[in-house]
Amino acid sequence: MFSSLLLPAGIGLLLVALALGILVLNERRYQRQRLLTERHRALGLPEGELVYEDADGEGEPLSSSAYPLVGKPDYIVQLPDGRPVPIELKLGVHDATIPYSNHSVQVAAYCLILEDYFVEAPTHGILRYADCEFTIEYTPALRKKVIKLLTEMERCSEQQPPPLAKQRVAKCRACVFQPVCPVGRNR
Ligand code: SF4
Asked: What's the CA-to-centroid distance between 105 and ligand 1, angstroms?
């Protein structure tokens, strides 16, 4: 009699333990998702999944297979429709009324790199300054401009350096054109 009750009681306990385990897992997953959502909102990122970040300098360098470009955008968010959006922070820039052209080119260069990493091609990036942000449309014209700059830079030499030659070493190390720039290449 006693032993015939043991089996159902054991199964019951097992089921309760399983249910508790599932509850704990669900709660952990929910808390993790909540923290991620809160962080996403606090960073002011567009809706989507944060798939890459380098704001802390820890991101892997991303490179293009078709062009000599290497870069580390501060964030990449993948929109719900699959398009990646690179986000570049330039928080030292104040009171800008339009995006600086070299910053726009940098965002476009990231878009060019991201063509290799996502099925959906990027259509724009975001440039964030201290007090405002701009959407940089990745137009065919801007894409062409990046490729043209790369070609021009390949023709540069130590004697004929690129226009941005007086950059600090740290800037060169973060520059997407470093692989082809005769000034920044060995810095
Ligand atoms: S690598 Fe340095 S010098 Fe060359 S373009 Fe970039 S920032 Fe300018």
From this structure: 13
